[in-house]
Amino acid sequence: MNNLFSYLKWRGDLSFYEAPFNEVDNAILCAFSYIPLEDFLTKDKTFSILELYALYQKNVKKEKLFKQNQKKLFDNLQQSKRFQNVKVAQFVNEVEQIKEKQFCAMTFILTEDLLFVAYRGTDESLIAWKENFNLSYMDYVPSQKRAVSYLEEILMHTNKKVIVGGHSKGGNLAMYAYLFCNEKLQSKMIQVYNNDGPGLHKNIEIEKKELEQKIITFLPKASIIGNLFENLSTIFFIKSSSFGILQHDLYTWEVENNHFIYIKEMDKKTKDLCNFLNKMLEDLSLEKKEKIISFLYETIADFGISNVEEFIEQIGKKQILKKYNITIEDMQIVFKILPVVMEIFKKLKL
């Protein structure tokens, strides 16, 4: 089974001048965006991946923050002719509790005339998950607006062509930023990649041709995250070496040469589940969605809930049912949604 690491062995000796940027490069840089390098990167500092690796090596304590695949990816990239001299610039990482916003983006300088803007997906902060849930009833969330302003700033200050991408929520941000940035700047963007990220709220009016022209979405066959909400972009279903929700992990996506291995359609059980979730969300009023999501958020924040049994045990200890005026009917909806939410919390550890 070939994956991102297999690709690096095969194509890693060729620079972007020798072999054009492709969809697998996109996934690699989106995976790199999750690596916790906040202490080294700022908006005003630019380092090559090789230089970043040297900084990391001098601070061994940082190693405990790296997950196994992140460490392996960093090791491989700094040895790779293709990636070691790629520069990482304009790094921004913003987590704001009051605004319920988690936003992280960076820009990779690939060649003299090509940039790749990457939006990090959901991190493990609780506020990031709350913002994800807010997508179900808000026309937009703060990180989407910030994604637009970030992209516009990059586009205004460069003559290079730009590719935009992201994984999970980052893929949603990439789509949103492209569609809602200044029209005069859109022509600088040659491709947008949504790697298993949610679609857009149905209240957002977009012509389908705009999505089809430049936005490509990759979904593993058992994708749940990427099938939430509406997505009218060009969609490719791809093969993963894992199963269920774990297929969301970029490191499990199967690769052949310079592209993913495509499949004809998604898993039927997953499709039925996604249709159920989308229909349930669509049928709820905005007020009810906000009430239930706020209830779930406070419960998880207060108790670190990990399963339904603990949930039932703990909710009686505080007056949050009364605070949010949660009814029996609301609780039935909660119990339908909660297993999926808990599964995501437990397994989306990229």
Neighbour order of strands in the largest sheet:
1-2-3-4-5-6-7-8-11
Number of domains: 2
Number of helices: 14
State the major sheet. Answer: 9 strands, mixed
- The SSE string, one letter per element, is HHEHHEEEHHEHHEHEEEEEHHHHH
Structural class: alpha/beta
Helix proportion range: 40-55%
Over all CA atoms, what is the radius of gyration?
20 Å
- Do you know the CATH architecture of the largest domain? 3-Layer(aba) Sandwich
Using the alpha-carbon principal axes, give the shape.
globular
CATH uppermost class of the largest domain: Alpha Beta
Instruction: Calculate the mean pLDDT score and round it.
Output: 78
CATH topology of the largest domain: the name is: Rossmann fold
Tell me what portion of residues adopts beta-strand conformation: 15-25%
Task: State the total count of DSSP E strands.
Answer: 11
Question: Gap between N and C termini, in Å?
Answer: 19 Å
Unreliable runs, pLDDT <50, ≥5 residues?
305-312, 342-350
Q: Short description, anyone?
A:
The protein is of the alpha/beta class and 350 residues long. 43% of the residues lie in helices and 17% in strands.
Question: Would you give an account of this structure?
Answer:
The chain has 14 helices and eleven strands. The strands form two sheets. It has a nine-stranded mixed beta sheet with strand order 1-2-3-4-5-6-7-8-11, with helices on both faces. A two-stranded antiparallel ribbon has the order 9-10. It is globular, with a radius of gyration of 20 Å. The protein has helices at about 5-10, 25-30, 50-55, 70-80, 125-135, 140-155, 170-180, 185, 210-215, 270-285, 285-305, 310-315, 320-325, 330-345; strands at about 45-50, 85-95, 100-110, 115-120, 160-165, 190-195, 215-220, 235-240, 255, 260, 260-265. The protein folds into two domains: about 5-270, Rossmann fold; about 285-345. It has about 350 residues and is α/β, with parallel strands linked by helices.
